[in-house]
């Protein structure tokens, strides 16, 4: 039986239509709500995976969602590995491949005595490179005095407020256990002073010495050691990035190798810092391409010390001059306030600007899609100074573009919230009571008093532009700035690891704000020790500046002759730069040039290179650069000799390949399909190419 709903007229049909429309609308609402929930759940899951996934590098690099601010852009999928061009740009320096690290003791070197003369407690001031130099020196001093070394205290961390209490002083940057274990056969090291000496230190009853950078071993043996024997403890304050001369007497050569063992083996960054540096390296190499590490070296202190203020022609010039005046007042700089910056630049005493570095790299042959990692915590002048470099190279990255904020926060540890206690608003206006006019009226009117001085509040002098005109002194560091100084140590530790492992390293400047070797010098020294043949472009700033002056009016259009001359100079400077650093940098910082004391020569180079005209040709040139070098012990592996022979033979065959001609003047900054192989200016002469490649493989007899 069927029941039929009867309605009057057409009312039944109209009601059914309204019912169907209502049901359809409700379904749309449920579908839309389900879609929103599903989208929110998908987004939440994606970020959870990005946050906690173990396969961080591959997933983040290949993800369609931009995890990092850097998305690499390449012209070609792969860069051929067997071409002459690749070896010229990225390959090792052949004549240095037989130098290997060897910092082990040689000769009669005994373990430290169980009974020492006392304790040495050290407080170290300065930046990253100064701290590293100082730690190496104090270990040598402890060995020299037969003393027990207390883990050094890094003032940049102990003076900071609000940093993590999980990592204190030395442990904020380095691994304490690794430091102690690596040097167990050299120096006796403890983490803290005994309880009785701790109390004496709190009462400031411990004798203290503020040692200069060039304090000789005689000073420690005849001034510090008697006090140490008397009081059983001595405090050393090291403010200038070292407490021993860079060059020690010949009979103390073992102490130079001890410096190498400290810097290159014992000083390992703590696990959190090392882990993030390894992640950044993995992300840089995820594309399978080599990369360049570039350290600008443009700090305000260095620019002020060397008189390079006029290179900026803006407000930064005034800031540099203010800093130079402050340095002159304190005796750091001995000279005039006003210096001809153009002349300083022509003499190679000022940093090369990022734009100039970009022009040199493009002219040498690096393509527009080369990966360049910019190191350094501060580029004075701001990011606008890096704009020309970004215009010439597509893949310019730094620490922040290759890491997430939470990863950096994990390195910092759990930090306290800093509250700025300075008043943010002006104080309330107090209305002064005016005296009765009848009581103060006289025969003649009194002159009005001068207006009261305008109150100065923190927001009036905030920033550089305020305190430059306020006082001749540098402003006191705020609590937040002190914390940032501690963070800079961690930033530079990450950059240091990346620069040492880079395929090519390019320093923009190698001096700090006191005229000493800086961060870049330490990197070059570590690379020279770890793998002497690694490509490090030690640019002769005076010569490079003269080259750039020749094309000053047409930076973006270089002719063939200029490019050829620049390439020849840079190839020859791979060895000539070592000679210059040996003469200038080593006498200021041993760690910037630890060869030949911490290296050895493995096998006779003339047996490996068939081009050597005489058995002593190659070794004599190395002797001219480094002096006498020890032969490596027989237990070292020699398996790389045969492989090197094969590489040299292959390179000879590649030299016969033809190079396409190019016009007399070729743009340096073409991109995409217009770019020749290598991205720079192509060689228009086959003989020039063969001669230049032969110079790198065999060296040039001069």
UniProtKB/TrEMBL annotation:
Membrane topology of this protein: Single-pass type II membrane protein
Q: Which UniProt keywords apply?
A: Carbohydrate metabolism, Fucose metabolism, Glycoprotein, Glycosyltransferase, Membrane, Signal-anchor, Transferase, Transmembrane, Transmembrane helix
Record's subcellular location: Membrane
Pathway of this protein? Answer: Glycan metabolism
Tell me the segments the record calls region Disordered.
419-454, 643-702
Q: Which residues cross the membrane?
A: 30-49
Q: What is this protein called?
A: O-fucosyltransferase family protein
